[in-house]
Amino acid sequence: MKSLLKRYAISTLGLIIVALGVGLSIKSNLGIAPPSCPPTILSLKWSALSVGTFTWITHIVYILTQWLLLGKRFELRYLMQIPAAFVFGYMCDASIWLFNAINAPATNYLVQILLSLAAVVLTAIGIKLEVVGDGWILAGDKLVAVLSEVTRSPFSRVKVIFDIVLVAITAAFSLVVFGLLDGNGHTVVIREGTLILAILTGICMRFTDPLIDRIFSKK
Hints:
Blueprint: H1 2-28, H2 37-45, H3 51-70, H4 81-102, H5 109-133, H6 139-151, H7 155-178, H8 192-217
């Protein structure tokens, strides 16, 4: 039981840190990571529902897609993605509220770049902690794994395609609804920051992963 609690504590910490990365990327107003693009643009259109709410709704869609793809091979343990979706979604809301309470969205370009880079570091650390904890399963990552299995393609390749599709859908929705490709004219969803987070997170993990492994190997 103690081991189980420890695993979920570490995984939850990972979710919190990734959520802080989401909030910081939105704060940068320079573009956010591909997985958070659809929930954010939907929230800009239907502001009665928060980014976090649209995040868990999106994750439920991902879970249903996994079930359709796997059929009888869909295991009961995959349902743990449901509470993970709620936890992560509302952590994103808390993160956005926290950073909005500090100040208005950044407008200085250098500050925006620095905030995006900080979001990269937080996301890299959070993802690694999720892996180390081996507790919660985020539906987006699991869907990529399922698509990789079904198509017999490398996970990394499927991940890139999946992210491109999410950004393309977001841009198309934004263009139709707001007449802009990057957001609603106030909050930027797709821009340089999106590319920074998509490319640099994996690179950053090459440096942060060994540090985290070292920390947990001592425990």
